Amino acid sequence: MGRKWNNIKEKKASKDANTSRIYAKFGLEIYVAARKGEPDPEANRALKVVLERAKTYNVPKAIIDRAIDKAKGSSDEIYEELRYEGFGPNGAMVIVDTLTNNVNRTASSVRAAFSKNGGNMGVNGSVAYMFDATAVIGIEGKSIDDIMELLLEADVDVRDLVEEDEIVMVYADPEQFHAVQESFKKAGITEFSIAEVTMLAQNNVSLPEEGQVQFDKLIDALEDLEDVQQVFHNVE
Hints:
Number of helices: 8
Radius of gyration: 18 Å
Shape: globular
Largest sheet: 4 strands, antiparallel
Number of strands: 8
Distance between the termini: 12 Å
Strand content: 15-25%
CATH class of the largest domain: Alpha Beta
CATH architecture of the largest domain: 2-Layer Sandwich
Order of helices and strands: HHHHEEHEEHEEHEHE
Helix content: 40-55%
Number of domains: 3
């Protein structure tokens, strides 16, 4: 699991360098989640998950409030959640999650990003089967034994615990995300290095230097697209 955490760290570090773009993406994701049900995170699980993730990226409260207020209004904007799958250089696998109000525009943009950067789009299911949806929560300032004892006392099941770079990483089934997080909050742990449901590759691959450079350009091109919310891959 350690390599998987490194991939998440690198993704977060990259996004932290583009805060305005990331805040805009979170604003849209929060708006869409709030429109799905009640604009109250305690009554809307999808919204609560997005807000927990936004907190780890330090999204300003003003952006969150503005998105929720917009969802409460009479806006008739309709967005679809679409997933694209494809391959990068040397057979690297990529999943692209999008929110769009123009499917043709998004499909064309994603396809172009792949084709211009040494990759190609795949059909639905061509890549996703090699990834697992996983709840990931990172905690600093606690030992792995402390976290294990806490989870045992709360009777919460997890897939794995890994201590790395002074952070205890908890991997669990997506359905356990709230149960795991609530068990920590009840124990007084309210700050998390990461708290999200993500897609983790079952097997990671290494690329030769040239392939890595091209792959990085592909990921950057995809993440720069307005409609793209998250990009997952299996490259170390």
